[in-house]
Write a structure and sequence with these properties.
The protein is mainly alpha-helical. It has 5 helices and 2 strands, in the order αββαααα.
């Protein structure tokens, strides 16, 4: 039975990465607790940390932070849509992934336009249509 020896530099790197992921998830949960009233519904700040995490650490990590952030936001709000929040969390993860992918490719203006259009359409049609 052979054991893989983890180098100290790899361990430090993975520890730093997991610490940053945990910090971004915590920021997303804190942002989920902040509700800004809007015309039809309330808007929470859970996506802010996910977008920053996606821009800094990559699309996959940003999407995961967004997914957990929306689930925390929906739990704080009392799950008004029930299990449909899982679909909304997946939608948020996809949007953060696309934004982060565009941003990482250097298409900063296009990523901002995409984000603006995506958030405006979700405010106009809060049920996800």
């Amino acid at each position: 039975m052979s054991h893989k020896v983890i180098k100290q530099s790899e361990l430090k790197k993975s520890t730093v990465v997991w610490t940053l992921i945990a910090m971004f998830v915590a920021l997303s949960v804190l942002g989920a607790a902040v509700k800004v009233p809007f015309i039809l519904t309330s808007v929470s700040l859970d996506s802010t940390a996910a977008l920053i995490a996606g821009g800094i650490m990559g699309p996959g990590i940003g999407a995961a932070v967004g997914l957990f952030g929306h689930l925390a936001s929906s739990f704080f709000g009392g799950l008004p849509l029930g299990p449909f929040h899982i679909v909304i969390a997946a939608e948020m993860a996809v949007l953060v992934y696309i934004f982060s992918s565009l941003y990482k490719k250097g298409w900063h203006k296009i990523s901002v336009v995409f984000l603006s259009l995506a958030t405006q359409s979700s405010r106009l049609f809060p049920s996800g249509f």
